[in-house]
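re: ur question from earlier - yeah i can do the single chain one, its not a big deal. heres the input i used so u can compare w yours
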Amino acid sequence: MRVLDSDAGEIVVTTTIKKSRFIATLAPVGSPEEAASLVDRVPSDGANHVCWAYLIGAGPHQMSRSSDAGEPAGTAGPPILAALTGRNVVNAAIVVVRYFGGVKLGAGGLIRAYGGSATAVLDAAPLRDAVLSSVIRLTVPVDDAGRIATDLHSMGAVRSTEYGPDAVEFVVQVPVEAEAGLRDHVLSVTSGAAEVLESSSQFS
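and the output i got, formated as tokens:
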């Protein structure tokens, strides 16, 4: 599995095929909602079609979807998705905006154009091997929260912190192989009072 480098931001590549402009935008996404937000914010004034695909996660929980956005069925979204799956790139979405240049491409031409545009933006992107991480949601008593917070931050693991009247909830992310050690440490520091509410794996 491969993912976009965390500092990559959005990558944009333009190709012109028989006078039609294809502007491909690639960005990291972690949910279908983030992918939809990307589609909404990509500039598309005057565009004839805004086609897209995303691939999120891996294994039985992997999510993928694509849209032809008015192009003939199967000629735009699926080729974009095929570019992602072909490169084994996850947690990413590609939006391809087409400005029609007056020359019809036909079904085969559209498939090559959208697939080629998606491939071109992947070629320009800084990709790296994905790391399988554990995302853990846990609570600790308020009295232990300061020590635990210091330890978790030193590991670079904290994604969010929510304070309640009696307990503090942390969402942390660590490499899968570090999960058991983190659990043992938190339970030891809190004398078993900490509680793991949820744990899941994801590529990052």
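The mean pLDDT is 94. not sure if urs matches, ping me
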